[in-house]
Specification:
Layout (H helix, E strand, L loop, with lengths): L3 H7 L4 H15 L11 H11 L4 H14 L3 H6 L2 H8 L6 H16 L8 H4 L7 H11 L9 H10 L9 H14 L5 H14 L18 H4 L16 E9 L1 E2 L2 E6 L10 E2 L2 E3 L4 H13 L3 E13 L3 E12 L13 E5 L10 H13 L3
Parallel strand pairs: 1-7
Antiparallel strand pairs: 1-5, 2-3, 3-4, 3-8, 6-7
Helix pairs in contact: 2-12, 3-4, 3-9, 9-12, 10-11, 10-12
């Protein structure tokens, strides 16, 4: 049953005309995207997970390579996690890949390898939130389920001149109910994709192409002259800068690396030894090697500086080439998650973007 707000926004709204105009436009303007070749729920699922926080143009080649390597649920479920992360390398937000593989294993074991087609079942899968569930159910199975992401909230904020903070859960719920009510019977897939496409191609955040919009006549935000002010969204806190230093120690064509912890930021990815510094970067990295690895080093030269921005952090990494000062009397065992790796084997491991840049410089410029 619709709530008071939903009734207010939908009162006198020309529902059928809006549906017809949107579907007519989408059928003639939809982009040729690889996950639209068929309605395989597994492929829809992979694409939607990849598209979270990532642009379509960036995702396309990753999706194609990922599906070529893991064409079925069984293939992904049985693959080594390290290989999955390697095929995700560069997309960022690596917990998406780990959650996807974990959920796929559950689908294989619990549902016989068939992606569930009911909201109650699919919503229990790891990493599958309301949007992803709605996208899979509507696009792959044709279910009348809303799939509300940032594009959809922007379109509907303007369409109904909704001046409520889209960061709030209650506002998202409002959009979900409005979308659910407007999905035409038998056309859930194209309707939901049409709204997403409209947000991506026409109803853009900064410069919406209102003159080309197929549903401009229904847009309250446009007619009230407030579409540029919508949607309402609270500002995020600025990311915190961290001064980091990384040290590259190569001996006998091998380099020392470590794997990050099982959980948390960039979990299980590989990186070169690094540490936050407050005194000088040279002192910090020398002390880090001595304390953690039992290796006394000195900085030979500064290689470069790498900066990488997360949603809440900015890593500013100074990178040094190191050399061992003296051979220890007794070799200290490496910490559990650290190892020596041959230089020609680095490409077999998954590194975060910041450390991919460091690795690239090792390859292109080399070390003396």
């Amino acid at each position: 049953m619709l709530g008071e707000k939903e009734v207010k926004y939908l009162k006198d709204f020309p529902k059928q005309s809006f549906q017809e105009e949107l579907l007519y436009w989408f059928e003639r303007n939809m982009r040729d995207l690889p996950w639209r070749k068929d309605k395989d729920p597994y492929k829809v699922w992979v694409s939607e997970i990849m598209l979270q926080q990532t642009r379509v143009d960036t995702v396309i080649p990753y999706f194609q390579r990922f599906i070529a390597r893991f064409p079925t649920i069984e293939a992904l479920a049985e693959a080594p996690e390290e290989e999955v992360l390697k095929n995700w390398e560069g997309l960022g937000y690596y917990s998406r890949a780990r959650n996807l593989q974990s959920a796929v294993k559950e689908v294989k074991e619990t549902y016989g390898g068939v992606v569930p087609d009911e909201p109650e079942q699919i919503s229990t899968l790891r990493g599958v939130g309301p949007y992803t569930a709605g996208a899979i159910l509507s696009i792959a199975y044709g279910k009348r389920e809303p799939a509300v992401d940032g594009n959809v909230m922007r379109v509907f904020s303007r369409l109904f001149a909704i001046e409520e903070d889209i960061q709030k859960v209650k506002t998202r719920k409002l959009f979900e109910e409005l979308v659910r009510e407007l999905i035409p019977e038998g056309h859930a897939s194209y309707f939901n994709q049409g709204i997403m496409e409209l947000g991506a191609l026409i109803c853009s955040p900064q410069s919406p192409k209102c003159e080309s919009c197929p549903v401009q006549q229904f847009c309250q935000g446009y007619h009230q002259g407030i579409h540029h002010e919508l949607p309402i969204k609270t500002k995020k806190k600025k990311p915190k800068p961290l001064q980091m230093v990384a040290g590259i120690l190569i001996e006998k064509e091998q380099v020392l690396i470590r794997q990050r912890e099982e959980s948390g930021l960039l979990a299980k990815l590989f990186e070169f030894p690094n540490v936050e510094w407050s005194t000088t970067p040279e002192e910090a990295i020398s002390s880090h090697y001595d304390t953690i690895y039992g290796i006394k080093v000195e900085t030979k030269r500064e290689m470069n500086r790498v900066q990488h921005t997360f949603s809440h952090l900015i890593w500013d990494i100074t990178v040094f080439e190191l050399e061992r000062m003296e051979e220890p009397e007794h070799l200290k065992a490496l910490p559990e998650r650290s190892r020596w790796v041959k230089l020609d084997q680095l490409d077999e491991l998954a590194f975060p973007v910041s450390h991919q840049k460091i690795k690239k410089q090792i390859y292109t410029k080399g070390l003396d």
